[in-house]
Amino acid sequence: MTTAQPHTPDDVSRAIEATLFASEQPLTADQIALHLGLGESGGDGVRATLAELERDYEPRGIRLVQRGGRWHFETAPDLAHLLRREKEELRRLSRAATEVLAIVAYHEPVSRAEIEAIRGVQTAKGTLDVLLEAGWVRVAGRREVPGRPVIYATTPAFLDHFGLASRRELPGIDELRAAGLLDPVDEDMIGAGLGAPRSGNEKPGFLAIEDDPD
């Protein structure tokens, strides 16, 4: 079934709202344009409308947010406590899983051997499995070197869970230290390579972060 193409700017805005509200997954501007029958060139217009809707929803009880190039509605942060269930299932990561997740986030795409080189210890398969099952890490292909090792990267779900629009918003070393989130072990890990610059992608005050492939 082909979606009827909206005719006026107001129609487009309402159609975008309805599409995002009904979607089970966050959508990119191009996916929305395709769904609404706006053609390949409709993405730019949808992006402009999304930016307007984002401003319109900012003071409301729900907000339109963009995470990793994908858009969805979520509860305003100051009202989230009203919707929490009394009994929550907490997802607690082990120290090893937390370290691996941080290394993947700051260095992706990265192989297990590279993770182990930074951590200085062997990484159990189960540690990566936990992150894959949580939906925060994904297999991003294979490194084109002898042995073609599997490489890992973060997912849009990782950005959404931690409230990040992109990996550019990850905190830097100084911010982590100021917040008291670094202990001597973390400092040693950073010295081993977690904060090492990667050519051409450094951002002052932040750990080396590559641009997201949108």
TrEMBL record:
Highest taxon above the source species: Bacteria
Any one GO BP annotation for this protein: cell division
Spans annotated as Disordered: 193-214
SUPFAM superfamilies for this protein: Winged helix' DNA-binding domain
InterPro entries hit by this protein: ScpB_csome_segregation, WH-like_DNA-bd_sf, WH_DNA-bd_sf
Keywords attached to this entry: Cell cycle, Cell division, Chromosome partition, Cytoplasm
Annotated protein name in UniProt: SMC-Scp complex subunit ScpB
Source organism (scientific name): Novosphingobium silvae
Lineage start: Bacteria, Pseudomonadati, Pseudomonadota, Alphaproteobacteria, Sphingomonadales
